Amino acid sequence: MQKNILIIGGTGLIGSTVYRILKERNPNYNLFIGSRKKRNSDQVLCLDVSDFATLSVIAQYSIDLIILCTNDQHNNVLHYAIANQLDYIDITKPTPDLKEAFSIAGKEKNVANKIVFSSGWMAGIVSGLLQDFKGINTVALFVYYSISDKAGESSAHFMAENVSKPFVRYKNNQPVTIKHFLDSEDYTFSFDVGKRRVYNFDVPDLFILNAIENVPNVSVKMTYSSRLVTRLLGLFQSLRLFNLLSLKNRRLIFSANGKGDKTIFEIIAKTSSETIKTTLKSDNGQSELTAFATVLHIEKILNNPFPDGVYFSHQLYQPDEMKNALLTNKTIKINTFKN
Question: What InterPro entries has UniProt attached to this entry (predicted)?
Fold first, then answer.
């Protein structure tokens, strides 16, 4: 049976990459793109997520699944998917927006579609690699980001808008208020990156691991490939210089114009008796990794009889299933160490 899939934001960096990979792996799927710009194509639906009325065009195309790859601050697409019983995967939301969307979905008494929130780091890969949370009391995520990598406009805009705003990590199930690029420490990465200075960084996994998977201690820190850039961002934050810059200038600082580079992250998970370290490297960078993981989620939803309800993407998988699926991509390397 042919599946009709709508990728809203399908002309952006992540959306277009999702489209390409999905088409390559599933040529039988019928793919549509949702865009604000009119195009001379039967596969492009002209709509604007900020204008709920424009979403009515979706009803004309017998869509089975909506993939949201653009910022939908008012959750119009989520409301539309629930009202029209259309399956939905969202990979775009920063932590505050994810909390709001999850609250909206949770208030629905009779969800008649599958709602999948996949806004964790790289489309929810972190929780998917951990998977078995029994006995885990601490998770620390360390991210290496290359300034030569590709990044979507929404990432730059999020950092520009939120770099000076406090967010929380969790210690003994209590929120601890922190800010980006402060509280530095040294961390030694695998894959020949070596020792780097890492700083506070806000990703939705902080909320997901604590509130959804009941991990009492959760933190995330990151570093840039450029040691100078990393230290300058820490200095800007400590001196409160970000507060003095206009939004436009902050966007310029966080914009990435690279042509692609490797992306790396590492997860340290602790129980009372052991420490488990999981390392991942994608040679094709974060946009390709995010899109590939999203395609795995799409295939999972369409090829398996999940009950209607609200999910986080890692909840679609059995232990080791996401790891094995990711490793089918030869550009991805994953290692696990226990002690």
Answer: NAD(P)-bd_dom_sf (IPR036291)
